[in-house]
Amino acid sequence: MASLAFYLSATVLFAQSTVAFNCSIAPIYVDIHKRAVHDSTVFQYGSFIGVGIPAQNHSLWPSLSQNQTSFGARTFCDDGNSTLRDCNISTGGFFSSQDSTTFVENENYETLDTAGNSTFDKSYFGRDTLHLYTHYFETDGASQTNVENYTVEVVEEGSTKPAVVGIGASSSVLRDLAAINKICAKTYSLYIGQGFDRAGGAVNGSNVFGGYDAGRFVDPVHKYSMTSAGMSVRVKDIIISETNDAKSNVSLFENSDDAFDAQITTDQYPLSLPYEITQKFISQLDAEEDNTWGDNSLKLRKPFNGSMTMVLDDGFEVTLPSSVLMNASNITPIQSRSKDSKAPFYLSTAFLTQVYLMADFEKQSFFLATAVQKNNMVMPTPFCPGSTPTAYQRPNQNAFLKQGLIGAVIGGILGAVGIGICAYCFVASCRRKVAERRIERRIQESQKAAKMAQFEVEEVMEFDPPPKSATPFFWRKT
Ligand SMILES: *C1O[C@H](CO)[C@@H](O)[C@H](O)[C@H]1NC(C)=O
Ligand SMILES: *[C@@H]1O[C@H](CO)[C@@H](O)[C@H](O)[C@H]1NC(C)=O
Ligand SMILES: *[C@@H]1O[C@H](CO)[C@@H](O)[C@H](O)[C@H]1NC(C)=O
Ligand SMILES: *[C@@H]1O[C@H](CO)[C@@H](O)[C@H](O)[C@H]1NC(C)=O
Ligand SMILES: *[C@@H]1O[C@H](CO)[C@@H](O)[C@H](O)[C@H]1NC(C)=O
Ligand SMILES: *[C@@H]1O[C@H](CO)[C@@H](O)[C@H](O)[C@H]1NC(C)=O
Ligand SMILES: *[C@@H]1O[C@H](CO)[C@@H](O)[C@H](O)[C@H]1NC(C)=O
Ligand SMILES: *[C@@H]1O[C@H](CO)[C@@H](O)[C@H](O)[C@H]1NC(C)=O
Ligand SMILES: *[C@@H]1O[C@H](CO)[C@@H](O)[C@H](O)[C@H]1NC(C)=O
Ligand SMILES: *[C@@H]1O[C@H](CO)[C@@H](O)[C@H](O)[C@H]1NC(C)=O
Ligand SMILES: *[C@@H]1O[C@H](CO)[C@@H](O)[C@H](O)[C@H]1NC(C)=O
Fold it and tell me: Transmembrane residues, as ranges (predicted)?
């Protein structure tokens, strides 16, 4: 018997080790920002994804709980169908399946989203072509990755934004992309950004399917395990600090027993914290209930010029700066909570405005790191299952000038990741400025130095695009 068990486990090991991931497949970078969406006159914030032929373009909100990718039906906002706030400008676009020549309804499809609360009130499914757009420069065209015969959900009724790209544990978009070898594995990274109304910021976000953006975070990265509750972390302290007074730190915890598990989610903006901690927040900062944004975020009676730091179990500290903690309108990203609420605790979108999330669904782990807010370069890098993402090491300017830009960067990538040069490119900040000037392929050192001086952030520079042969599809200049 023992030898049989041994044989079986050896077989399992063997089977696992033969699951080969081709980690030189370039990831797919899909940016998140405000843009024109189908059938709406209002620019909307989200992931640049289209559906159908001809393509109807939408702004999809990434959800870490939903598994299907969905689009709002043309009739979604019609009288009585939906209770979504400001419906006609909040659906991320409107999809008319009858206008797509490739749409085939699938009445027998069984949805992967079975958890009652997060599903939509009424929808139908069908197969169509999904377009994932990569768009670096505002003035340049986008390149696209198509997934044919992809099952989309068309939402007819609901109370939440219907245009969602589902990155849940059974994400159909990651599954299909991996199945057709357009990404190396079911890995994914997200920076949600702050360029939407509720956050009131300007920084745009990005999705990287099958990879991560090495320019979007700083080391160290912190590793966590996925659980049946999805991506959950343990919070061991929360500290309020006044910006101008280093001695002002106040913990919202009574004692260490207050540590709690919180799910990471993009399904709501405000954080949902345990009742006692919420009460302490209210008394400490003199907050009151409010529902300006329809999400029960607390409002301060008088301005507070400070920050809030969440300390996770492993020591990782995430600070919400004063611009996030208390916007001009005095509204905080902390939700009120009733004493007997059984709802999960959430570190939600407001938390993710400061954090880069990297998820490895193959190995059931995920990574968090401090996000780089003012991103200077976009560096999509394949995320091989089981590996730990590493941030691009920003060289100091002297090293740059000595070695020459490209040499330094490629050397860094090869050294750090040890994989083929297939998946990176660099986009300077101030995209518009750069695009207007058009990137010259050969910039002389002197010009480089001059341009460098024009950027506000220290190590910002322009980069030549990688050689054509090294960029399969996504550095495409028009
Ligand atoms: C506060 O939010 C508003 C939108 O409600 C936004 O216009 C403004 O820029 C935000 N202010 C700060 C300091 O973030
Ligand atoms: C891995 O992917 C690269 C890039 O797409 C491709 O050139 C190579 O042939 C693939 N290798 C295998 C073993 O499939
Ligand atoms: C709701 O949507 C359906 C189609 O899904 C449409 O026929 C109807 O006019 C809409 N409005 C109401 C009030 O049902
Ligand atoms: C959205 O609908 C409201 C009424 O519900 C209307 O006043 C407004 O003009 C519409 N906006 C757009 C952009 O269609
Ligand atoms: C997505 O799939 C995961 C894993 O199968 C499941 O736990 C989760 O409930 C699904 N999401 C929804 C909204 O049903
Ligand atoms: C759905 O969510 C709401 C609020 O988020 C909660 O009050 C309700 O109990 C939930 N229902 C189920 C069935 O989980
Ligand atoms: C969707 O976006 C792509 C890429 O920018 C563009 O080529 C296409 O024309 C857009 N479709 C529509 C209907 O605007
Ligand atoms: C699309 O997928 C379905 C099953 O998901 C399959 O039955 C059908 O043959 C596929 N069609 C094409 C054109 O690949
Ligand atoms: C975010 O994207 C929008 C739309 O493309 C653009 O106008 C804006 O400049 C971007 N913001 C930043 C900070 O790059
Ligand atoms: C206050 O908290 C911040 C953030 O955790 C920390 O950097 C700082 O050292 C603390 N100051 C004091 C006096 O504890
Ligand atoms: C808040 O603190 C910052 C940093 O010390 C300071 O620059 C700013 O003027 C303060 N704002 C207010 C309204 O006190």
Answer: 404-427
- The answer for residues whose C-beta is within 8 angstroms of residue 264's C-beta and 6 or more apart is 64, 230, 231, 232, 233, 346, 347, 348, 351, 352, 357
Protein residue whose Cα sits closest to atom 12 of ligand 11: 305
Query: Ligand 6 within 6 A of 399 CB?
Result: no
**Which stretch of 42-46, 73-77, 245-249 has the lowest confidence by average pLDDT?**
245-249
As a whole number of angstroms, the distance between CA 161 and CA 452 comes to 41
The residue with greater pLDDT, 405 or 176, is: 176
How far, in Å, CA of 350 to CA of 335, rounded?
Answer: 11
Task: With a cut of 80, say whether residue 167 has pLDDT above it.
Answer: yes
- Rounded alpha-carbon distances, angstroms, from residue 154 to 86, 125, 129, 399: 19, 6, 13, 52
What pLDDT was estimated at residue 412? 34
Q: Ligand 1 pocket, 327 CB below 6 A?
A: yes
- Which DSSP category does 402 fall into? H
Question: DSSP of 143-164, one letter per residue?
Answer: EEEEEEEEEEEEEEEBSS-S-E
pLDDT of residue 247: 74
| Mean predicted confidence (pLDDT) in 378-397 | 90
Q: Which CATH number fits domain 214-390: 2.40.70.10, 3.90.180.10, 3.40.50.300, 3.40.50.10490?
A: 2.40.70.10
Q: Which ranges in 192-339 belong to alpha helices (H)?
A: 275-285, 322-325
Structure confidence by residue, pLDDT tens digits, 239-250? 999 877 767 899
- Nearest alpha-carbon partner for 277 in 291, 257, 292: 257
pLDDT of 364 over the 70 cut = yes
Q: Which residues line ligand 11 (CB under 6 A)?
A: 243-244, 305
Distance CA 294, CA 41 (A): 23
For a ligand 10 pocket test, name from 235, 236, 241 the mutation site with the most ligand atoms within 8 angstroms of its C-beta: 241
What CATH number labels 28-183? 2.40.70.10
Q: Is residue 439 over pLDDT 50? A: no
First to last CA, the chain: 66
Q: Ligand 2 within 6 A of 185 CB?
A: no
Q: Which ligand is nearest to the CA of 420?
A: 2
Q: What is the pLDDT of residue 448?
A: 35
Q: Is the pLDDT of residue 397 over 90?
A: no
Domain with CATH 2.40.70.10 in the chain: 28-183, 214-390
Distance 417 CA to ligand 5 centre (A): 32
Strand partners, 155: 72, 123
Per-residue pLDDT, 417: 37
**How big is the chain, counted in residues?**
478
Half-sphere exposure of residue 131, counting CA atoms within 13 Å on the CB side?
19
Chain-centroid distance of CA 445 in Å reads 35
Q: What percent of the chain has pLDDT over 70?
A: 77
